[in-house]
Amino acid sequence: MLIKPGGPVRPVATGGIIVQQALKAVFFVMPFLFGIGFIAPVTAELIEATGMATPVGLTPLGFGLVFGGAWGLYATAKGSWL
């Protein structure tokens, strides 16, 4: 058996690379997910608590999803919330 110089052979950790890529993808869209998962329901509750009317006859949650989704997409594209 021949042993090549350079030390022991290290196994390739392909599972770790796949997990790393998956987490990068999730964290890339995290502002959008935050927009529809947190900002939308909070906006809907604020609209209902204040009794404001929503534009175009949308439900408060529908307006919150449009508002939160748009803000989340903006934050994802720009890389900042402001």
Describe the structure.
The protein is mostly helical and 82 residues long. It has helices spanning 14-28, 30-50, 60-78. Helix 2 (30-50) runs antiparallel to helix 3. The relative contact order is 0.14.
Could you provide a short overview of the structure?
The chain is 67% helix and 0% strand.
Jot down its keywords:
rod-shaped, 82 residues, mainly alpha, single chain
β-strand number: 0
Overall pLDDT metric: 86
Instruction: Write down the secondary-structure element order.
Output: HHH
Structural class: mainly alpha
Work out the helicity level: 55-70%
Rg over CA atoms:
23 Å
Largest sheet: none
Number of helices: 3
Report the end-to-end length measured between terminal Cα atoms: 63 Å
- Poorly predicted runs are none
**Relative strand content:** under 5%
Q: How would you describe the shape? A: rod-shaped
Per-chain topology:
Blueprint: H1 14-28, H2 30-50, H3 60-78
Helix pairs in contact: 2-3
